[in-house]
């Protein structure tokens, strides 16, 4: 059915787009805006590879229509680095070997960044629950947890 | 994996939403959290012609205690329920329920109202709402009416809501002092539906006597089940291990599970028994503490 | 103790990964990230039936949708003889069917459209008329006389038997069993599982009509082999090998699932050749789970013979291998059951015999795509379960029985009863280390006390020997292509390096580890070394990355090529220093005159000289290629110990602790090795407790989506405890062995053994994986145990 106009702010940039109502947010980001850092790993809303921030909350962009995000703010993995400075979560993943194939990584980091904002000093078990909506096949989660702990420590120090 | 086409509406008031339901008829579906509906649409198992997105309606996401009720706006996200100071301090059964719905990302979108209105017997809130003797507020063209939980689920994936009504609020009578509740769910992994789940809410009188108890069962029947006979055997009796054991046995007998990849009928029934014991014991602990 | 400085980053340094900067920014290039001008999309129509004749494919409704350009069917491909293709085991496989479908979710037709949404609508609109045929789902029933014959397309095929394969001395083994003091028998079923990398499979095919060149971006672990296969299979439609470029970009996990050539790739290529436009095909998750290569599905009947004192004497195994409708497992061609005959494991068996029968059923083809080193998981699971069973049967501690029977260090190189020559090992050291780390003796004491109180606690051991690095050209080939691998290293005038390899990382960190190998050999800092893989236009020929073969083969090639460079560098250094070669010494990064360390030339200076001042009589430049034919496989090993507590009410198995001691010889990057083990352990946990793909009697798949195919999250995954021993490989240039799959191979048996150990006193002797709460509950209630 016909297209409608939506306005999205993505990583601080405004976009006006004509989209079909059924266009999934993840496809809007990847195929229309060519922000391919957000990935697709399933179609049943389990894997979390598509995680982005919608008005600051971590959500699965495969289970949202782009039209639902009209007038809202979205942050993708491409928006984590600011002025050439990596987000502590990105640094953590690099320092602590929190990624291998890299496919689940953007989703993991988006979940982690939103989580750490609300929980700056989490326990390991709290971290594991926080990332339980993001599947990884490569790492066995151990170093992902360490990466997030690294980031939490850095963020508590005010970086 | 790609949903079929539809027309999209995003009303900003409940009245508008109701008007759209009336106007668009049976091919219209309400979109709240979308965590059940959108995956179904992606698999083309649901193909509504019109989607009415109610997420922009303000004022439907408050959590407050007034007039003897805990009132939860239908659009309250599970994450909000889980993290609400009020709910965490006074309604741990609701925290236990919300925290096992999907995963943390799902909970940022999924709504309490949606969990009830979708009427999947595998959803977690129905059992807890039965245990809490809750009622929902249905808002339609003629105004508001209250539907008790006990008559809300009419059959498999069907509720007592009229086609032109929107579920706007959930009302839970504030339990008396010396009350406590718990929700215990067995899932194969985080994000799975319950192999079985049990919600128990009880109120103690003097000497650990059970003044009131309600037990709700998740995913062991075509609709959420209240274990009436289990409740009967407890009311008026001192809550002791033997009473709990008998109630759990009756709860198991009240369940009507189907065999599937999660387990056989016998397994699920026994699971209801096991989980009922655990839910009742935890509810008892909390009731004794007066929480 | 690393020989190089951290700045150089040679072997032993936990160098932070060079590939990470793009991944942490979301700037990786996976196949679905590619957008080419004019690109079309392919979506596939799939069969709902497991076995059915195709009566009619009605495409008019699909073609009527604006944006749908074509619907491709088997009839269309048959015109170019592309409707069937060879498998990697020299069987045949349909690209698109003409007569009948043979498994649920099989590709039936493909819709080509201008965007992916329209392609999906088109696929929905294709109408197929099927006539269902009798379905064969049970592998044992498939062999019964009178079973419907599935491969009616194969002349001379009168049943569902594919091949019979056996290995070992049957006579000696049978005699050992006749003479045995004790024997144990067990049927073990390892169900189908699916590796389910987070990135599904796909490609972008781009045929340039003017140049006659095909560029195929593809999720493949073996780009060169694929190129050759395409040239052989599609040569008759004009694809020549020098005009085919396979690019394996960033791959989101492979684990063996991205080795086979799936129909979707071939259809996309055909569509691009026909239209001259780029064509993208990306499967969705359910297609991936339901149609792509599975792993396991082995029905194993195992027997173990021993003396009363616990000396193991013989092993005898018969297996039925359910291969689906065709044998498309990517095994080395001489070994249809892969390396299953490593099943004598870490033990000094004097006699063994193993036989396997491959069977056709109405299921998707495959067999080894789940991080299993060519059936080694099956072999290890079998021997470790049987050894544990024997220990319990004899009333012997399972660790004690293993220690008694381990091959001893002085027996290496060790020739097993099934013909493998193990390069090196020290099994007792690994097991002792694991036992100490977990506090084994205290745990056994705790178990006794808990058992008195009716609590269920179990301890399970897996002391596995892995076999990787396929393989020596004498015995190993895939479709005739020998399984060497390659490295091409070029040093530029300014001392920087470009190095290309014939393997293809899907997360293993080759851009870092291969650079570390070169850094080790040449003393050039890792930061100055650019490693490339995956583009067949530039990379030297190799057989790809799977079965933990990269470090053993391509890693070795890298060391050998670097050493060739060092040899030439020495000549140049001698020339520059006006010294004799024999008087020069090497330390990482420089040659110097023995006794006069100030008279030195750095590798950078030598590199510059190679282009500006090279010695007369030798060629300019500083580069080398090595095609490394490994003299043997390598044999990593380890001991894992798992502690479980079982909930008598729900049947849940909770892993309290899991200690993994691995030995992969000399380690290039400890951080990366540890990460591989964490990941491998988690892919051992998954089949042990959660994952299974099964079918009902009509061939309908059960568990064909993430709703029921249960990948563990961070909550289900234990906090793995890892440690290591180091027994280098005597034949590998770096003494390294490879490690990517060890943990997946070794872990399931440790978990299964722990559960059986917990329940042994109740009369339980075996539980097939996945060990679900429902299964455990049933065993408990049957033995009268309740909460």
Task: Describe the structure concisely for a colleague.
The complex is a heterotrimer of chains A (159), B (291) and C (787). Chain B is α+β, with helices and mostly antiparallel strands and 291 residues long. Chain B is 34% helix and 26% strand.
Topology:
The complex is a heterotrimer of chains A (159), B (291) and C (787).
Chain A: E1 4-10, E2 13-19, H1 25-32, E3 51-54, E4 57-60, E5 73-75, H2 88-95, H3 105-118, H4 124-130, H5 142-156
Parallel strand pairs in A: 1-5
Antiparallel strand pairs in A: 1-2, 3-4, 3-5
Helix pairs in contact in A: 2-5, 3-5
Chain B: E1 7-9, H1 14-24, E2 28-31, H2 37-42, E3 50-53, E4 63-66, E5 69-73, H3 78-83, H4 85-90, H5 92-98, H6 104-107, H7 112-117, H8 125-131, E6 135-140, E7 143-148, E8 153-155, E9 158-159, E10 166-173, E11 179-187, E12 194-204, E13 210-218, E14 225-226, H9 228-234, H10 241-254, H11 265-289
Parallel strand pairs in B: 1-3, 2-3
Antiparallel strand pairs in B: 4-5, 5-10, 6-7, 6-10, 8-9, 11-12, 12-13, 13-14
Chain C: H1 20-23, E1 40-46, E2 52-58, H2 60-63, E3 68-73, H3 74-78, E4 84-86, E5 92-94, E6 100-101, E7 107-113, H4 116-125, E8 127-132, H5 139-142, E9 161-168, H6 170-178, E10 182-190, E11 202-208, E12 213-218, H7 223-233, E13 244-247, H8 263-275, E14 279-282, H9 285-291, E15 298-306, E16 312-322, E17 351-359, H10 376-394, H11 398-405, E18 414-415, E19 421-422, H12 427-438, H13 440-452, E20 456-465, E21 477-478, E22 481-482, E23 485-491, E24 497-501, H14 510-522, E25 529-533, H15 550-577, E26 584-587, E27 590-593, E28 596-602, H16 603-612, E29 623-628, E30 637-646, E31 653-663, H17 670-690, E32 694-695, E33 701-702, E34 721-724, H18 742-759, H19 773-782
Parallel strand pairs in C: 1-14, 12-13, 16-17, 24-25, 31-34
Antiparallel strand pairs in C: 1-7, 2-6, 2-8, 3-7, 4-5, 9-17, 10-15, 11-12, 11-14, 15-16, 18-19, 20-30, 21-22, 23-24, 23-29, 26-27, 27-28, 30-31, 32-33
Largest sheet of chain A: 5 strands, mixed
Principal-axes shape call of chain A = globular
Based on Cα principal axes, name the global outline of chain C: globular
* Element string of chain A (H = helix, E = strand): EEHEEEHHHH
Number of helices of chain A: 5
| CA-CA gap between termini of chain C | 53 Å
Oligomer: heterotrimer
CATH-scheme architecture of the largest domain in chain A = Roll
User: Approximately how much beta-strand content do the residues of chain C carry?
Assistant: 15-25%
> Mean pLDDT score of chain C, rounded?
97
